[in-house]
Design goal:
CATH superfamily of the largest domain in chain B: P-loop containing nucleotide triphosphate hydrolases
Strand content of chain B: 25-35%
Number of strands of chain A: 2
Order of helices and strands of chain A: HHEEHHHHHHHHH
Strand order of the largest sheet of chain B: 6-7-8-3-9-10
Helix content of chain B: 10-25%
Radius of gyration of chain A: 23 Å
Order of helices and strands of chain B: EEEHEEEHHHEHEHEEHHEEEEEEEEEE
CATH class of chain A: Mainly Alpha
Strand content of chain A: under 5%
Strand order of the largest sheet of chain A: 1-2
Distance between the termini of chain B: 63 Å
CATH topology of chain A: MetI-like fold
CATH architecture of the largest domain in chain B: 3-Layer(aba) Sandwich
Oligomer: heterotrimer
Shape of chain B: elongated
Shape of chain A: globular
Structural class of chain B: alpha+beta
Largest sheet of chain A: 2 strands, antiparallel
Number of helices of chain A: 11
Largest sheet of chain B: 6 strands, mixed
Largest interface: A-C, 104 and 99 residues
Helix content of chain A: 55-70%
CATH architecture of chain A: Orthogonal Bundle
Chain lengths: ~300, ~375, ~260
């Protein structure tokens, strides 16, 4: 499983399971039962809720079981821009994060390979942002880019920005914040793939008359593909459902809302559970379809 | 010191032991008896079922059917920790989170034996590693780890010691040295040793009795010299050393010998050294019992002669030379000649005849693969 | 001829990127010392007051305490359950293996908002009141798969022959587990527990959907963002950061010392 990368573990050697018997059942059942009850059935609750109709009593937040497929039409009709924006932002942020992270992962895994101290230090620096609340970090960017911050003022002074220009609340700010938050998620799996790369293969490429660029394209990159795939998934999936960065209290504005923001608003603020659930189901369905196409096309089905 | 650890080894008996895994049979109905105090080797290629057999004796696998008896007592249903058996594992399986001394004391502590540490120290003395007692296993060399594993098993005075390819990970020189040490320790402590290996030289060198295993069954069992001198199956003839094999219909029988017709040539073997005397029979001879001549030797009733053929390959292996001789219509024959300047000096391509004494022929019970009767 | 720009290009880029990654951390740290009144937006001067009297803002402290309670409890449960699953996955043959793998993979591939909303919808259907209990349930759920993946990698490097050697040396299955399997898996289990703790402690989205009136630290920050986050929150954030970095450094130094020792 490619997500091993997140734990930063030594590569697992293949081991065929040999033991049989009841013990396996006792070991597996509690955990799987837990996931069944609190992961799997909630997904069904979500589908059930997405089809509910308002209670005849007219009370806010009261719904009863129905087969109201119209909820989906309503959700899509009402929130199509947010849905499109979510996937657009997620795609863009993933691509930018990949471009930024790959060289870092390459440097730590390949250039710092024989310097354990430097390697350890750099890895610590990559994961350092994890250790400070994601919300505090995002809020810090908000302050740094706020309308009368020196960043914006400097941009205005040197004439790049007009007097009424701003950063916070723009698509740029949201994508910037998303990229920033997910660089470590992209870097670590790629690092872990490159860390296992046998450098003699790269030397062999050079030996066989490939120039550095061709060697990278034909040897290094293909061999790091598992890391790239799990890195892009670890970035794309959470971003598509994120609503902190795009929130108006953080880096977003009136026109940057993503699916997450609408789900939050509908579920927690106006208690329109069916619409929020329908949007969640749509998001989940889209992710499942996209991920399975992506995983299949990239040929690493052992991810599952 | 070693006398402290002497316990009488016990005999081991396997009764119709069979092990099936999903999709294949690892061990077919195996009967085996190893007398107490013997050094017994189970020899065979990988996948022949020898390791599965060892694991069933240790209790790490449960036989599908059949019984395992140690000292006459049925232990088939006992768990590994209940059996008076200890194993030296293939890669030693020393516990990396314990010191060498703690590794050796582990079994004693588990059985709540008094004074585990002095006893473990004494066991380490026996393998001359007392000075490394406080090291971690990872800090030792392969040979040292091997000896720790041996001490860890022997300190428990098992009725039966199982050795699972214990020398496989060592280099050739160290392997030779450890073979001698193992053999010495075995005669010193007098325990029953069951040694599993795929190395035929190792098995013949160390064991009192060797059983050759193939496809889940024992093909032949006996003292190493006997097995080598008189292999009974094509597999043993090929696996234990090398053999030239000839297959043909039996043409002549006398009270002393039988002869087969091998592609127009008569090949004779003594009746005392054959397994089968009718139909298609395979007769073989060891390469070092075979000679070649530059002129045709006179035919006689005590000698088999084939040829002429050409020498196609000469390999110098040190003490002997290995010659490949290609005889038209007959095929390839291997001849070993001692490097004492006695054998004729020949060159590649020279025309030679091959001969060997009838008394060196042996007849097999089966036929080599690809030569079986089609009925 | 090789031009020297190439030699310095990558290291320079890496250094600049790390600088970029550090900016908001430095900002948060700096503003934990701001002599602010309430909103902590404008720099008003240096003070230690926020650090010395964190619980001046009672809500911040309560939220922090809640986060610790939730993370400790959820980490404990998910580490136990996840370790059991990991051992079974590597060591045992059983039916429905691919279904099991899928069930473990799905939570990793599900956006938090979907898990949060789904669980909240289920709690509504069950009529369970939201509170600490529901947050702990939720956090155990989403950290479980991470634990399995991390411990599984460690189990896979554990030679089964070591356990067999234990059984061969008169240890019963329970003794084999506690004397051999567990000590050898411990680094992996600890890594998994640390990961689970970090994920739980920093989680916001799933928490917001299932916490009702209970505030965790991230939830407090989110709610406070609208009117300005108090400097005490920066103190807590910076404090957690320092502790975490210290733990990571100690672990790394210890393992490098150990490696050097073994190399001798």
């Amino acid at each position: 499983m490619a997500f091993v990368a997140l734990g930063g573990n030594a590569p697992a050697k293949a081991q065929t399971p040999t033991k049989t018997g009841r013990v396996a059942l006792y070991l597996l059942l509690p955990g799987l039962f837990y996931l069944g009850l609190f992961f799997l059935t909630p997904l069904f609750s979500l589908i059930l809720t997405s089809l509910k109709a308002p209670s005849p009593s007219g009370e806010i937040g009261r719904y009863e079981v129905a087969a109201e497929f119209g909820n989906y039409l309503y959700a899509v009709g009402q929130y199509l821009p947010q849905i499109i924006r979510s996937f657009g932002f997620a795609l863009l942020a993933t691509i930018i994060a990949l471009a930024i992270s790959y060289p870092i992962a390459y440097f730590i895994a390949v250039k710092a390979r024989n310097k354990p101290l430097l390697k350890g230090l750099l890895l610590t620096l990559v994961i350092a942002p994890f250790f400070i609340s994601m919300l505090l970090r995002t809020f810090a960017w908000k302050q740094i880019f706020s309308n009368d911050s020196w960043v914006v003022n400097t941009l205005k002074d040197i004439g790049i920005f007009g007097s009424d220009s701003y950063i916070i609340g723009t698509n740029f700010a949201v994508i910037f914040g998303l990229v920033y938050n997910f660089i470590p998620f992209m870097t670590l799996p790629i690092f872990s793939s490159l860390d296992r790369l046998d450098l003699r293969l790269v030397e062999a490429g050079g030996d066989l008359y490939a120039n550095p660029f061709t060697t990278f394209r034909k040897i290094t990159f293909p061999l790091s593909l598992p890391g790239v795939i799990s890195g892009t998934l670890l970035t794309f999936i959470p971003i598509s459902g994120d609503y902190v960065v795009a929130s108006r209290d953080f880096l977003g504005g009136p026109d940057t809302a993503m699916i997450g923001n609408v789900v939050e608003a509908n579920f927690l603020r106006i208690q329109d559970y069916p619409t929020a659930s329908a949007l969640s189901v749509l998001l989940m369905a889209a992710i499942v379809v996209l991920v399975s196409i992506y995983v299949r096309r990239s040929g690493t089905e052992d991810l599952l | 010191m070693a006398t402290d650890f002497v316990a009488r080894g016990q005999d081991l008996e396997l009764v119709e032991v069979r092990k099936e895994f999903p999709g294949f049979v690892a061990v077919e109905s195996l009967d085996l008896k190893i007398p107490a105090g013997e050094f017994f080797a189970l020899l065979g290629p990988s996948g022949c079922g020898k390791t599965t057999t060892l694991r069933m004796i240790a209790g790490l696998e449960t036989p599908t059917s059949g019984k395992v008896l140690i000292g006459g007592k049925d232990v088939t249903d006992q768990k590994p920790h209940e059996r008076p058996v200890n194993t030296v594992f293939q890669n030693y399986a020393l516990f990396p989170h314990m010191t060498v001394l703690e590794n050796v004391a582990f079994g004693l502590r588990q059985r709540k034996v008094d004074d585990p540490l002095p006893k473990a120290t004494a066991a380490l003395e026996m393998v001359e590693l007392n000075h490394l007692a406080s090291r971690r296993p990872q800090q030792l060399s392969g040979g040292q780890q091997q000896r720790v594993a041996l001490a860890r098993a022997l300190v428990n005075r098992p009725a039966l010691l199982l050795l699972d390819e214990p020398l496989g990970a060592l280099d050739l020189k160290l392997r030779r040295q450890m073979q001698l040490e193992l053999k010495d320790i075995q005669s010193e402590v007098g325990l029953t040793f069951l040694h599993v290996t795929h190395d035929q030289e190792e098995a013949m060198d160390m064991a009192d009795t060797v059983a050759v295993m193939n496809h889940g069954r024992i093909e032949q069992m006996g003292a190493p010299e006997k097995l080598y001198d008189r292999p009974k199956t094509a597999f043993v003839a090929k696996f234990l050393g090398q053999s030239n094999l000839f297959v043909g219909e039996v043409t002549d029988k006398s009270s002393e010998t039988i002869s087969i017709n091998f592609r127009g040539n008569k090949i004779t073997a003594p009746n005392s050294r054959i397994e089968k005397s009718s139909g298609k029979v395979a007769i073989g001879v060891r390469p070092e019992k075979t000679e070649f001549h530059e002129s045709k030797p006179a035919a006689s009733s005590t000698q088999n002669v084939l040829g002429p053929g050409k020498i196609t390959d000469i390999r110098f292996t040190g003490v002997s030379n290995q010659y490949q001789i290609e005889i038209p219509e007959i095929g390839e024959i291997t001849v070993f000649a001692q490097n004492v300047g006695r054998s004729p000096v020949v060159e590649l391509g020279a025309e030679v005849w091959v001969s060997w004494k009838v008394e060196h022929s042996f007849g097999l019970a089966d036929l080599p693969t690809g030569e079986e009767d089609i009925e | 001829m090789r031009f020297s720009l190439g030699k310095y290009l990558l290291p320079t880029y890496v250094a600049l990127t790390f600088l970029f990654l550090a900016i908001p951390i430095a900002y948060t740290f700096a503003f934990s010392f701001n002599d602010s009144i309430k909103s902590n937006i404008i720099w008003r001067g240096f003070t230690f007051d926020n650090w010395l009297d964190v619980c001046n803002q009672q809500e911040v402290c309560d939220a922090f305490a809640n986060s610790v309670i939730v993370a400790v409890t959820a980490t404990f449960i998910s580490t136990v359950l996840g370790t059991m699953i990991a051992i079974a996955l590597v060591r045992y043959r059983f039916k429905f293996r691919s279904a099991t793998n899928l069930l473990l993979f799905l939570p990793l591939a599900t956006p938090e908002v979907v898990m949060g909303a789904g669980l909240a919808a289920q709690f509504l259907d069950f009529g369970w009141p939201k509170g600490m209990g529901t947050v702990i349930i939720a956090h155990t759920m989403f950290t479980l798969s991470f634990v399995v993946v991390t411990v599984k990698a460690r189990v896979a490097t554990l030679d089964p022959a070591l356990e067999e050697a234990g059984r061969d040396l008169y240890a019963n299955p329970l003794q084999v587990f506690w004397k051999i399997t567990f000590p050898l898996l411990l680094p992996g289990i600890l890594a998994a527990a640390m990961l689970a703790f970090a994920l739980s402690f920093d989680d916001f989205i799933i928490t917001q959907f299932n916490s009702g009136a209970v505030d965790t630290f991230p939830k407090f920050v989110y709610t406070a963002a609208a009117r300005g986050i108090p400097a005490e929150a920066n103190v807590i954030g910076s404090f957690v950061f320092i502790v975490a970095i210290a733990i990571v450094l100690v672990v790394q130094i210890r393992s490098s010392i150990k490696q050097r020792k073994l190399a001798k």
